[in-house]
Amino acid sequence: MPTGRAHGLTIVKSCEAFANAGSAVTLVLLRRKNGSNVDIFGIYSVPKIFSVRYLLVPEFLYRSTSQMAFTLQTAVFYICAFFFMLFENRKDTIIYTREFPITLLRFVGFKVVFECHTISHKRRLFFWFCRRASRIITISGALKRTFVNAGFADGRIMVAPSGVDLSIFAHLTGKGEARDALGLSRDEKIVLYTGNFTTMGEDKGIIDIIRALKELPDTTFVAVGGGEPDIVRFNKLAVDEGVEARVRLLPHAPQAVLANYQQAADILLMPFPDTPHYRNHMSPVKMFEYMASGRPIIASDLPTIREVLNDTNAVIVPPGDPRSLAAAMRGLFDDPARSEMLARQARSDVERYAWGERARSVLTFIGA
């Protein structure tokens, strides 16, 4: 932390929401000895209503970028976290973590809540640790079913998808004004993707979007949030497909800037491929931001998507099908009334996914 990936934002927004709900919150992070001090609150634009505690990990562990070095860094962080927590009050402290080995603190008297975003490939060991948790939060119903099928009691697990900061979208700007602010043409048809272009090395639908552009010669694709290697990779694909003049791939940007791009778009895209991760494990922050933005959404027909989006608030298309994606975009361009209806319904539906609502539900479930 900080990180350009969505998990950094969701961690900080969860801390903010728990604090707003009345909890005294401490975020425990790793710090390098010679690393520059960072302002988590400034970077993520949140008020200083929770505390941040850094655990020092020896600098020599960072002299290698190998997997073994990363594993050692992680192990040392866990050890430091264990010693740090030993001096905390067991009675009044709940440990809320995404790191399943931290559930071992249950053995020394803490209530430990594990928030699960994916299932480790070492399933037997992973579930052994998870059984130590007092409660489990999953970000999708599919993840919860995996736990139940593994023998966990249904009542110990709560589904809590990712959330959204609705205040960023409280004053929706006009499309034209947003485009002027970003230097985009008011006359273009613009389809947009925001967020990282890949997850764990997997494409997040950028390939299908670029290929779909061949059937939409009057449409420009803008994507914001890519790392440099991904920008290079997908720009090359755009050249190979002959659509490079209508593809703009931009690097990471703050959430408020992403919201401005979302306001500037005609259509927001989320055509995730059908892989185990996207099918069962994700709850993308961009989905809730898209819903709050007041723009129509096109998304893949996957179980994790269907838990939130449906035919009343989005256009759902088969994953891995650029022609269907192109047809869906063309359909929304040709039917402004339907586009407006879908966007309006999505904006109404997203209210239940505000970070504050999520935090209150989680705190009630874990008995805080």
3D structure, described in words:
The protein is an alpha/beta fold and 368 residues long. The chain folds into two domains: 6-164 and 356-366, Glycogen Phosphorylase B (Rossmann fold, 3-Layer(aba) Sandwich), CATH 3.40.50.2000; 166-352, Rossmann fold, CATH 3.40.50. The chain has helices spanning 6-20, 40-44, 67-85, 123-130, 141-149, 175-182, 206-212, 228-241, 255-264, 276-281, 285-293, 303-306, 322-334, 336-349, 355-366; strands at 26-32, 51-57, 94-97, 111-116, 135-138, 157-159, 189-194, 198-199, 202-203, 219-226, 247-251, 267-270, 297-300, 315-317. It has a six-stranded parallel sheet with strand order 11-10-7-12-13-14, sandwiched between helices. The chain has a four-stranded parallel sheet with strand order 3-4-5-6. Strand 5, helix 5 (141-149) and strand 6 (157-159) form a beta-alpha-beta unit. Helix 6 (175-182) crosses helix 9 and helix 7 crosses helix 13 (322-334).
